Amino acid sequence: MSLLTLSLPTPPLDFSESHIVVKLGGYFAQKRVESAGRAFTKRARNIARGRSASHDETDDAATRAYDSQCDFDEWIPSGTEKIAENDSKGEGKSFYELYGPVFTANARFSANQPVPTLGGDDKPIDEVYAFYDFWNKFDSWRDFTHDSEHDVESAEHRDHKRWMAKKNEAVAKKKKKKEYARLASLVDRALAVDPRIRRVKQEEKDRKAQAKREKEEAAQRLINEENRKKQEQERAVQEAEEKQKEARKDAKMAKEKQKKLFRKVKKAFRELMVAASDQGLDGAIDVIKTEDLCDSLNMDALEALVTACGGSADKLDASGLAAVNDALAKL
């Protein structure tokens, strides 16, 4: 037999049902293992990520807890210090040097970053207001649980442990409240003496005072104008009344003068008629008719008769008696 024709024995093929089941079962089992392995790997990766994030958070919490235990100067200005920027002589402490470092020191406990700075005298006023608004809403991460009064781990049983935890929490809340009160006092005291705020308030106060003065001056001008018009009206009324009074006086005087002159004319007429009667002149009239004419005629008409009769008894003109009788006839 040659080497070319040499062949190894071939094992018989097993196509039995049991053999096929075993083979397929092993195949699918292997697939399930591989699938489970991939799922496990994915879950492990997610868990690792979660543990990493949790670890970071734990580290942050631990860092903050540690920082909270470190000595910290809680001093803040009393608010009664003389501020150089607000003093007319420039005496006292600089507001920015007094309050700036205190705000900077306390900014480390802010949960919100970045923390705005106090700034200087040239800081825009809107940024100054934003600074105080931030600190009025300050969120502190400072942890006071490290000063726990009770050691929870030493509790004898679960209820005792719960009681200790509750007491510790109450103490921590009280200290946290005190911390916020301290920060609120810092903000209030700084706000009260901040030269930038004081300038703005003074400017607003001056503006309101100026507006008030202008309003009062305008109102006073209006009152003065009304008083002037009223005085002018009163003066005009007074002048009119004085003119009327003077006119009445003049009229009265003129009337009295007229009456006096009329009486003089009547007297002259009576004397003329008496003289004519005494002389027995034709046309002479008696006393009764003379009085009738004096009572009936006006001064001008009576004066015309006097003139016609000569004007006076010593100058009696008999020709004028005709006019007297004509006037008497017309009564």
Question: Could you give a quick summary of the protein structure above?
Answer:
The chain has 331 residues and is mainly alpha-helical. It has 8 helices and no strands. The N and C termini lie far apart (207 Å).
What does this structure look like?
With 331 residues, the protein is mainly alpha-helical. Among the domains are: 110 residues, no CATH class; 114 residues, no CATH class. 68% of the residues lie in helices and 0% in strands. It contains eight helices and no strands. The protein is rod-shaped. Pfam families: ZUO1-like_ZHD. One of its GO terms (biological process) is regulation of translational fidelity. GO terms for molecular function: Hsp70 protein binding; ribosome binding. It comes from Peronospora destructor.
